[in-house]
């Protein structure tokens, strides 16, 4: 057919219109505005920390040595050869930090209790009264400021004596030790704490402690790591098995002896990547299902349904530990809510029908490999950590996965945050603002689609000790000077404070209020930059 000039012009303009429409739609989605009013009125907005990462005071007031106190003394284990002996000195500065959170406008604070501060010698020793006093003061002062305590009992750190005497989480003895610790916490704090997390990220503890050997007690085997001892194919399964049973036993104690008077809610938290197929092939789509089972359902299937995911049983066979009939009964329905720590999304490649390096072809990995790149192109904007990319759609997808698999059980996003690619201008953290805006918008879409999500916690309220990365990576809304420990609000503080006040702009007032101080640091510069967001 012959095309004349007018027709060509029309087709050209029509093509431009289509391209413009597509890019406009994409840009609109990326720039989607999110407001506090998009969430339920009783929604919890808070920030998270953990004891070892912020408290410091590692031997003050009767605290014993933890596994991380011991581990960080081994040369080369931590990126900057630093430790949490001082950390953010939250133990001595908790009143200042509560005021920062209050000024920010958060209505919840998720923190963990140091096992070694409460029971330095485990069950064989006595309760440290000064540890109880500290957490009582922390809880009481939070409540006085209208901030809900959201308490994690075990967040990676445990008394070193339990590693040396009992063998850590590889030993069934740790189950009773944990139940004893949890019972002390329920008895001491449960009259004021309404939200309990038994264990934070047991899936990641099993992975980093017993598969990769990067966390204490640093056990692994090739090809996953070069440790002096360990078995990466089996020990992660054993450690996870003991943690899950310990969780169920602690919940049984709470519901039997404490719930009638305290009326609290109890759950468990998993680290939850979202996954997408590397190739548009059935084998990679099947690998995505396995990745979700091995990463997310490994934690939640047992505590909801009483047993491990069928996908794991299929891959592991008899190597996967089995729960007794009594243990299944304890596990089934042993949570009131699901906690999701979500940071990023990765591609998944099948390793059943194609070769994979680095252990991807082994059952412990689910016969799959994960990557953040497809044909050299990242799945999202890279951040300061190799496996963390900015993929906002992953938030909506992971929440929908949990909603569908667990019949829309109540959920909390218990951690979400990012570390920047470069820390040269950490105070002007525009990328962190964009991260939280986009992930909150994605979460709001999931809630509009019916997901029963009841809270969102930023990781973290302030820069802290980021495990094996030490202080080289910063996730906080507040900058912490490593020499003076002074807290300085980043640009994101002004944005988050404004968001929580449901304002459409961020100005000097929000930043000044959220600083908790009458400082003149850099507010005149920050307010101009915030206004551009």
Automatic annotation (TrEMBL):
The answer, when asked if Glycoprotein is one of the entry's keywords, is no
Domain of life, source organism:
Eukaryota
Q: Which residues form the signal peptide?
A: 1-24
Q: Does the keyword section mention Hydrolase? A: yes
Keyword terms of this UniProt record: Hydrolase, Signal
Pfam families listed in its UniProt record = Glyco_hydro_1
Annotated TM spans: none
Q: Which SUPFAM superfamilies match?
A: (Trans)glycosidases (SSF51445)
Q: Which InterPro entries match?
A: GH (IPR017853), GH_1_N_CS (IPR033132), Glyco_hydro_1 (IPR001360)
Family designation: Belongs to the glycosyl hydrolase 1 family.
Q: Which PANTHER family match?
A: BETA-GLUCOSIDASE 18-LIKE ISOFORM X1, GLYCOSYL HYDROLASE
Q: What is this protein called?
A: Beta-glucosidase 18-like
Q: Which organism is it from?
A: Prunus mume (Japanese apricot)
The primary gene name is LOC103326243
